[in-house]
Amino acid sequence: MSDVTRVKHGRPTHHWRRDLVELAALFTAVAVADAVANMIGHGPDGPALLVISAVVLVATAGFHVWWSRRPSHAPPVADTGARPLVLDQDGTAAGRQGDGAGSAGAPLDPSQSTLWRMRTTVRDQPGSLASLCTALARLRVDILSLQTHPLAEGTVDEFLLRAPQEVPAAELSRVVARAGGSGTWIERADAHDLVDAPTRILGLATRTALDAAELPLALRQLLGRCTIKSLPAVSPAADGGDAAPVEGAFDDTVMRLRTPEGGVITVERPYLPFTPTEFARARALVELDSRLGPRVPGSQDVLTLPEGNEITVRRADVSDVAASKAMHERCSQRTLSMRYHGPVQDADRYLNHLLSPRFGRTVAAQTASGRIVALGHLLWDGDETEIALLVEDSWQRRGVGSELLGRLVAMAIEAGCESVYAVTQASNTGMVAAMRGLGLPLDYQIEEGTLVITARLDATPVVSRPAPEQAEHH
Predict the structure, then answer these.
(1) What are phi and psi of 104, to 5 degrees?
(2) Cα dihedral value 42, 48, 51, 57, nearest 10
(3) How far apart are the first and last CA of the chain?
């Protein structure tokens, strides 16, 4: 019997017609062999018949070899070679490779390619995504990752692409539009975007869980370039028409998320509308932050000042409002006016705001007795970052402010901020000297006695660090 069978649904399929033909051929061969044997044994031409039989058998064997080697009858050969699959417009495999598809299989040299992040909207029907991928393949564009954001009508596809350097963004957009994409947005990507989405989101959730001040930064990294503002519960916006429902809401380019204390976090991204998938991810981060409650890292440094006094530098939060208010009461009016640019009133209200992780990070310097003598704030101001310092009079000019400022700048760099700015009075020489001591490029703007100093964080800052024998980590 023949060993060649076909496979149907994963199991070999035997053909009974072929078996009957082979069985009939076997009986016929036996009958012919018996007749030939009788003729040879009883006829005078026995040797001639044997020679003729041999010739016939050789001819039959040759015909069989020729027949079996024909392309239409050759047994199937397993093909393990990887070749690019070219799809028709309806998403089915084409019978031949398309124009340029052969070169699309060649790997791109990372040094001769560019990473792009691209988002486009395609019709929610079979073959739409296949047409788009085929169009990119013709440009030798490698799709490194793909995320889908379902909409009520259509689907937003977000790609991470590696394209040849000679292919500009305008060409990519044009090809995508011809393949059926609409509302295409594209920008340069970097090596950080190579991390897959689940891993990146888990990392952001971990950062948020460890530090409540990380929530605005996590939202910014999750949603890209956007402006994030936190409105306290007492704000009219939180009590009026702009307040978000408990579960939050988003409308095109604006997202509103409720906080447990009744405030609202607004996220604006004018250049790119939000999708329901992005809103769900952002809401999950806010819910995680809400469930964990107030928290700051517990690490602290004990520093020895040049005159021998020891101070502890640590993170502060709303639990330090009372100690911070007591420090304000010990400060002179001149020191307070340098910091707040005018009379200080209702300290409880603005201290709750400044010390809340919703609005940034705060570091405090306290004595061995637990008295706070200096505060440094890193405040998230939309898409900008402000630095502010307040040092008690008797502790000024002793390096405390410079120590806090260096730590705040290091936090800003870690958070991915491009710059920080400080608002003070032009006569505040101490703040000016501390900013210059960072060793960063500075920009000065003065208007009606108010000085704004902006430091670009594109260079390594000179951050004051205690000597090994002067610091103790807890």
Answers:
(1) -65, -25
(2) -60
(3) 82
The highest-confidence range among 81-95, 177-191, 247-261, by mean pLDDT, is: 177-191
CB 440 within 8 A of CB 415: no
Cβ-contact 455, 440 below 8 angstroms: yes
Q: What are the helix (H) ranges across 166-226? A: 169-178, 197-210, 215-223
Give whole-number Cα distances, 229 to 210, 223, 255, 256, 267, in Å. 21, 14, 11, 10, 7
Kindly report, residue by residue over 269-292, the tens digit of the pLDDT: 988 899 999 999 999 998 898 888
What DSSP string describes 5-32?
-EEETTEEE--HHHHHHHHHHHHHHHHH
Q: Are 301 and 311 in contact (CB under 8 A)?
A: no
What are the C-alpha distances in Å from 38 to residues 14, 43, 54?
37, 8, 17
Residue 131 neighbours by CB under 8 Å, 6+ apart = 87, 89, 91, 179, 180
What value does the mean pLDDT of the chain take? 77
pLDDT at 369: 87
Find out whether 389 and 331 touch, Cβ atoms under 8 Å.
Answer: no
- Do residues 278 and 226 lie in contact, with contact meaning Cβ atoms separated by under 8 Å? no
What pTM does this model have? 0.58
